[in-house]
């Protein structure tokens, strides 16, 4: 099964020291053959990807426990902001429509009551063979 067909993936980004930081994410395939996910522009993932665009992906469960026997996929990531992030956001909504509707309320709360950056942000990844 292609990695983009998975429901959850363990994304590993890398600190300047080279230490990996794993995070469970939702992913969606994009028409150009790449894939992506959404996140907050102020997240640690964004900072680490800006410093080092090399990431790895591995199938996992909701809590980030890697599926036994699954392979690691290497990718190159880029940060998309504003209108550039809309294609990824739409792909995530199509693939995970039930869950994204559930999280509308938490997104609204964040935008209304937290002073976090509300710029739309997504990460686009090109998978390496």
- Structural category is alpha+beta
Into which percentage range does the β-strand content fall?
Answer: 25-35%
Biggest sheet architecture: 7 strands, antiparallel
Rounded to an integer in angstroms, the radius of gyration calculated over CA atoms is: 14 Å
Figure out the total of helices. 4
Order of helices and strands: EEEEHEEHHHE
General form: globular
Give the helix proportion (percent range). 25-40%
Strand order of the largest sheet: 2-1-5-6-7-4-3
Query: What is the residue-mean pLDDT, rounded to a whole number?
Result: 87
CATH level 4 superfamily: Electron Transport, Fmn-binding Protein, Chain A
Q: What fold name goes in the CATH topology slot?
A: Pnp Oxidase, Chain A
Which runs of at least 5 residues are low in confidence (pLDDT < 50)? none
CATH class: Mainly Beta
End-to-end CA span: 14 Å
* Count of discrete domains: 1
Number of E-state strands:
7
Give the name of the CATH architecture: Roll
List the helices and strands and how they pair.
Elements: E1 8-14, E2 20-26, E3 28-29, E4 35-38, H1 44-51, E5 54-59, E6 73-81, H2 86-95, H3 97-102, H4 104-113, E7 121-127
Antiparallel strand pairs: 1-2, 1-5, 3-4, 4-7, 5-6, 6-7
What does this protein structure show overall?
By secondary structure, the chain is of the alpha+beta class. It has one domain (3-127): Roll (Pnp Oxidase, Chain A), CATH 2.30.110.10. The chain has 4 helices and 7 strands; from the N terminus they run ββββαββαααβ. The protein has a 7-stranded antiparallel sheet, sandwiched between helices. Strand 3 (28-29) and strand 4 form a beta hairpin. The longest helix has 10 residues, at 86-95. The mean pLDDT is 87.
